[in-house]
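Weekly modeling sync, notes
Attendees: AB, CL, MP (scribe)

Item 1: holo prediction request
CL wants a bound-state model with magnesium ion before deciding which constructs to order. AB pointed out that an apo prediction alone won't tell us much about the pocket. Agreed to run with the ligand included and paste results into these notes for async review.

Input as submitted:
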Amino acid sequence: MTADTEIPAKIRLNAVNKIFTGDRGKLVALQDINLEIGESEFVCFVGPSGCGKSTLLRIVAGLERGFTGDAEVDGSPVNGPGRDRTVMFQEHALFPWLDVLGNVMFPLKLKPGLTDKERIEVAHYYLKLVGLETFERAAIHELSGGMKQRVALARALAPNPRVLLMDEPFAALDAMTREQLYGDLQRIHAARKKTILFVTHNVREAVCLGDRVLLFSPRPGRIRHEFKVDLPRPREFNDTALAALSRDITNELKTILAV
Ligand SMILES: Nc1ncnc2c1ncn2[C@@H]1O[C@H](COP(=O)(O)OP(=O)(O)O)[C@@H](O)[C@H]1O
Ligand SMILES: [Mg+2]
């Protein structure tokens, strides 16, 4: 394949550095990040707390100012949040005064050219996709943690962003609920072909979901290693090949962190 015919990267980070200046001086949150992510690729960022995973996600989201280097989405510099990207966090951040349907419809209110009827149809589509079609009138406080994250996922998907940025979205959930959501997310990724950046400190979760797993190390936050995951999909969290690769990656991570 020549350079002319290569498909351009969906997301491109070139020599990205981010320094926070606080009371205790300067902290290099990210150092020399170079990364290309293809359309529909699912990339997981793994590493211990404080290695800059969230900061990098926020840079791509357009929420972080004052970094150096280039961050591009679809060939254009990121200079603020955009409708082409949505973010989902560990805390669901749903609006408690709106019901399930109201939460999923909320971002659609900002989308021009849709009638109310169309907004409801779109919200129904995504509620069905996350398996909550019978809960549209439920109040947020009535839902389990897993259901809340499903609503948050439907809300993030509803504006039909091309890029989904997920920051430890399942970290607060119990193991069984998490495994169900791995299945849901794989199904949604296959159906909707999003480009997904997914932050986790759980190696096995990253291997279950990602096309690639990037290992970060802290102080300064850097990408230290990259693993391609060539396992067939859909992937079972307890699959033996998946467990074996997770073990290799965990060992590599230990080596990186030991030095
Ligand atoms: N707004 C901020 N001001 C000062 N330091 C920050 C800020 N946000 C993050 N940091 C620091 O930058 C480093 C990377 O943080 P973060 O991206 O949240 O790491 P991770 O998500 O991998 O845990 C940490 O040391 C953190 O304390
Ligand atoms: Mg974080």
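Recorded for review: The domain at 8-84+166-182+195-259 is CATH 3.40.50.300 (Rossmann fold).
Action items: CL to compare against the apo run; MP to circulate these notes.
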